[in-house]
Amino acid sequence: MLKLTPILLAIGYALLMYRFSAWRTRKELDAKSTELADRRLLGLLSPMAEALDVERVRVMIYEIDPVNGLAAPDGRIFVTRGFLQKYQQGLVTAEELASVIAHEIGHVALGHSRRRMIDFSGQNAIRVILMGLVGRFVPLIGPLIANAVVGLVAAGLSRKDEYEADAYATALLVKSGIDTAAQKSLFRKLEHLTGGAGGGTPAWLLTHPKVDERIAAIEANERRWGLD
């Protein structure tokens, strides 16, 4: 039991930190968000709500400049003011922004926030185990190796979530009568819209799949589902 104590403490600490982070995120979002009121976008959300068999899809605008969408741990859907401004400037279409919302709905529907809490706890336990094992042989760089391994695991799990949310979004867009071309065209714009994030970083280190790989996965699903 004593040998397991550090691992149990690591898991407990990770759970506590995740809960604290979720609380802090909710407080931040509550203070800096307003409800989406754009009529064109709301018109696209209406068939989504019908497809999901819910009264409405509620989307909040997070009042920050970076271009992003997010699914909060409490299940709320957000797009940033910066993203909405790109739409208002004509750089992003209403259908493209709707595809972002569908993607974030996918994260919520597939329980990715809960999965991340479990993953985060497991990764912290792995870090403790690796630091103990590797540290016996290479004391000075053991922690660096442990963090690198855990980082690779976390990146892989994150990419898996993104592919799943993309597939969910494709299905929801089709069911809502929105062409999936908007989903793919937005991915082609993302690098420019976000300032070229990702660059030459190897795919296995990225928390999000590369654009070409995401589009290829969407098209593979379309063929599998007879949508092409």
From TrEMBL:
Cofactor field: Zn(2+)
Pfam family, one: Peptidase_M48
Species: Hasllibacter halocynthiae
GO terms of molecular function: metal ion binding; metalloendopeptidase activity
PANTHER family, per the entry: METALLOENDOPEPTIDASE OMA1, METALLOENDOPEPTIDASE OMA1, MITOCHONDRIAL
Family: Belongs to the peptidase M48 family.
InterPro entries in alphabetical order: Mito/Outer_Membr_Metalloprot (IPR051156), Peptidase_M48 (IPR001915)
GO cellular component: membrane
Annotated ranges, domain Peptidase M48: 44-220
Keyword Zinc: yes
Note describing how the cofactor binds: Binds 1 zinc ion per subunit.
Superkingdom as given in the UniProt entry: Bacteria
Biological-process GO terms, alphabetical: proteolysis involved in protein catabolic process
Name of the protein described by the UniProt record: Putative metalloprotease
Entry keyword set: Hydrolase, Metal-binding, Metalloprotease, Protease, Zinc
Keyword presence, Membrane: no
